[in-house]
Design a protein that fits this description.
5 strands, Autoinducer binding domain-containing protein, DNA binding, alpha+beta, 2 domains, transcription regulation, Arc Repressor Mutant, subunit A, 10 helices, five-stranded antiparallel beta sheet, Beta-Lactamase, disordered C terminus
Length: 247
Amino acid sequence: MLVDAAARLEHLTNVDDLWEGLVAALREVGFTHAIHISVDAEFRAAQVRCTVPDLYTHIPPEDDPFLHHSCNSYEVLTIGEAFVDQYPDVTETERAFITRAAEDGLRAAFAVPMRLQGSDRFGGFIIGNDMDGATFEENFRSIAEELRLFCLLMHRRIEDLTGTAPLPLPDRPAAFDQLTPRESEVVNLLAHGYSRQETAHRCGLSVHTVSDYAKSGYRKLGIHNRAQAAALVHGAPQKDASDGADG
């Protein structure tokens, strides 16, 4: 069933449509949540798609425990709060992250690590629901190999459509030092032409949360919109555009 879905989805040319179809296919077999995350070899330039709203508000995607504990092999592993005792090396911060995911309905999951040949990026999928560990294993272990193949096909297609990691953004101006790390990241991405939706995907946030960070960042910087943020970042003269907020 999942492989058939992958064959249909591979023909899509828009990554948002692909993600929507991927999530729908997983929900048909009982998985209510999905995360796709990849980083470069230095754990930077994370690209994230996630059905759990605001999961990465308190921890950057690059610090997701999946990347640090589940990507040393290509095996399909069980992760999440339901299986956390299998990972005695998780830190308190990582455990808190896992607990927040469980509170939002991602209690038990399969970790499906991915690394395409010839690419320096790695990551994969986290796919699960709110079942207890025993029930999850009983219901889904039999399709783990089919799930791995589905994820491989979808990972390859997502990477094809999004390309490799975006080029590193230039250093942020000194004025950004007064911002929180999240405000700085969001305002910098918007200033470099990313849409709010693209910024949300890259940061693992909801579009609403991106807007909130942008507004608070603009206020601290004494600016009102994306154009003024771009002028600040690129060193161009700012024109007064207080009536044209577009954050």
